[in-house]
């Protein structure tokens, strides 16, 4: 008798799925810090959740462990860390103006549709629309700048709207292309800014 006979989901236990799950753990720590109104620590943990999202896909490809289970697991974690968490940040930290509420609804709906679309299309080496981890980073950056530098809250609301539209757009972005390297570098620079400010 194997352990997976009692716990069938353990048949899917592999390196990429463990990395994906670790991303969810980082997301939970980010959520905890938001409950403490500690934006700095929440952003740090979201950064590492984003790193896990980048690494799990790379590991799955390199180890030839790409599965439907892993794809759906990644989508569920992405919805929590990259869609729900930015919405929570905006609700908790910004002035809930009608514009911000509209931006939140658009961002959430577009993120949901973006993830569903990703799960139901064949991969050809390109993303269609802006992936949700990049979207999360852009929204998180806008929230940080609004909170830290007295920038008007409509900037974050507008970012939600623009990023939401980009997620469901038809733009083609090559997987592991230059745009991801640029986004990764921007994320590191942003993290350093958060740490030193």
Account of the 3D structure:
By secondary structure, the protein is mainly alpha-helical. The chain has one domain: CDP-alcohol phosphotransferase transmembrane (TM) domain (Four Helix Bundle (Hemerythrin (Met), subunit A), Up-down Bundle), CATH 1.20.120. 75% of the residues lie in helices and 3% in strands. The protein has helices at 3-6, 15-35, 39-62, 68-93, 98-119, 132-149, 154-167, 178-196; strands at 126-128, 172-174. It has a two-stranded antiparallel sheet. α2 (15-35) runs parallel beside α4 and α6 runs antiparallel to α7. The longest helix has 26 residues, at 68-93. It is globular and about 60 Å long. The protein starts with a helix and ends with a helix. The mean pLDDT is 89.
Blueprint of the fold:
Blueprint: H1 3-6, H2 15-35, H3 39-62, H4 68-93, H5 98-119, E1 126-128, H6 132-149, H7 154-167, E2 172-174, H8 178-196
Helix pairs in contact: 2-3, 2-4, 3-4, 3-6, 3-8, 4-5, 4-6, 5-7, 6-7, 6-8
The shape, in one word, is globular
> What is the share of helical residues?
over 70%
- The name of the CATH superfamily reads CDP-alcohol phosphotransferase transmembrane (TM) domain
Spell the H/E element sequence.
Answer: HHHHHEHHEH
- Which fold name corresponds to the CATH topology? Four Helix Bundle (Hemerythrin (Met), subunit A)
CATH level 1 name? Mainly Alpha
Radius of gyration: 17 Å
SS summary, helix count: 8
**Order of strands in the sheet with most strands:** 1-2
Termini gap: 55 Å
Average pLDDT rating:
89
Q: Which structural category fits the helices and strands?
A: mainly alpha
CATH architecture assignment name: Up-down Bundle
Summed up, the domain count is 1
| Largest sheet descriptor | 2 strands, antiparallel
- Tell me the total number of β-strands: 2
Uncertain runs are: none
Strand content: under 5%
């Amino acid at each position: 008798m194997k352990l997976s006979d009692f716990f069938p989901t353990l048949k899917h236990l592999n390196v990429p799925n463990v990395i994906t799950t670790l991303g969810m753990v980082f997301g939970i720590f980010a959520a905890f810090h938001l409950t403490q109104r500690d934006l700095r620590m929440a952003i740090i943990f979201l950064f590492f959740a984003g790193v896990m999202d980048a690494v799990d896909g790379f590991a799955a490809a390199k180890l030839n462990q790409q599965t439907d289970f892993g794809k759906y697991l990644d989508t569920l974690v992405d919805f929590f860390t990259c869609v729900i968490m930015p919405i929570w940040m905006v609700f908790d930290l910004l002035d809930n103006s009608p514009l911000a509420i509209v931006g939140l609804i658009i961002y959430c709906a577009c993120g949901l549709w973006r993830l569903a679309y990703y799960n139901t299309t064949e991969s050809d080496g390109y993303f269609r629309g802006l992936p949700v981890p990049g979207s999360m980073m852009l929204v998180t950056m806008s929230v940080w700048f609004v909170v830290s530098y007295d920038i008007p809250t409509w900037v974050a609301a507008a970012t939600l709207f623009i990023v939401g539209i980009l997620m469901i757009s038809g733009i083609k972005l090559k997987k592991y292309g230059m745009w991801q390297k640029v986004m990764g570098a921007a994320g590191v620079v942003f993290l350093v800014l958060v740490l030193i400010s």
